[in-house]
Each structure stands twice: as C-alpha cells, then as structure tokens.
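Lecture notes, part 5. Sequence design as translation. It can be helpful to think of inverse folding as translation between two languages: the language of shapes and the language of residues. The source text, in structure tokens, appears below.
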C-alpha cells in the first residue's frame, strides 16, 4: 500500500508529509554508484526502487508488530474474562505470595496499556490531520 500510494500520488503524499523522497532517492543512487564504481560500472535506478524500499520497511514493521499485538490481545482477553466471570471479588484484591500487584491492579494496568496509544494519538491529532482538516474547511489558520 505504501508503494502504491507513493507511486500513484504523483508527489502529493511527499509534499503533505514533508518528506523529500526524491532527495533520498538521489542519495541512494549516489551510494549505490559508489559501490559499482569499484568495478567500473554505473547504474540508474527509477524512483520506484526507493518507493519499494519504503514499502518493504513498512511491511516488515507491520509484520514484526503483529505477534506482540496478538499476544497482548490474548492476555487482555483472558484477564478481563477471568475478572468478569467470577462473582466474588475477594481474589481481585488479594496479592499472591511473591507478587507485587493484585489482580485488580493488573487489570487496571492492562486497560491503561490498551488506551495509552489512543491518548498519545490525541496529543498529535492536529499535527497529523490539521492541514488536511483546514484545507477541507477552506481555512488558512486556526483561529482559537
């Protein structure tokens, strides 16, 4: 998806994000040509090659994060289901021997861990969507 977005946006995505991919591509070609100069060769690469590298990095990050997200989701599901199934809440407050936190404290920490990315996203909401929202509304500046 990253590759398609970069190829078919004709530079609009680069301008919106403030990334100069053309400069990055030129630096990449320069460094590749330094390596090929050892053998007396020279290459010219299309910008799509750099887009492909960006796409591969984004895909690898996505696949690397999936395992941790699945483990957390299963852990979150098991803990919250265990807490909701049992009628008595005495075990929620009890600390096991050698444990730092009670079961209820673990549940609250899981909820905090689950909601933290949403709160962090809200901190950067204007920076992420501000120019898009402002252009859709036809405003140049925020007037608050």
């Amino acid at each position: 998806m990253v590759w398609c977005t970069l190829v078919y946006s004709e530079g609009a995505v680069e301008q919106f994000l403030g990334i100069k991919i053309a400069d990055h591509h030129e630096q990449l070609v320069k460094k590749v040509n330094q390596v090929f100069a050892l053998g007396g060769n020279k290459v010219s690469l299309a910008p799509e090659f750099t887009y492909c590298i960006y796409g591969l990095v984004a895909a690898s990050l996505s696949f690397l994060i999936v395992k941790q997200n699945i483990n957390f989701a299963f852990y979150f599901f098991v803990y919250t289901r265990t807490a909701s199934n049992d009628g008595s809440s005495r075990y929620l407050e009890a600390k096991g021997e050698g444990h730092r936190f009670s079961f209820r404290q673990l549940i609250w920490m899981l909820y905090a861990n689950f909601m933290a990315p949403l709160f962090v996203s809200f901190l950067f909401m204007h920076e992420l969507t501000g120019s898009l929202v402002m252009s859709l509304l036809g405003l140049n500046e925020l007037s608050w």
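The translated text above is only one of many valid answers, since several sequences can fold into similar shapes. The radius of gyration is 25 Å.
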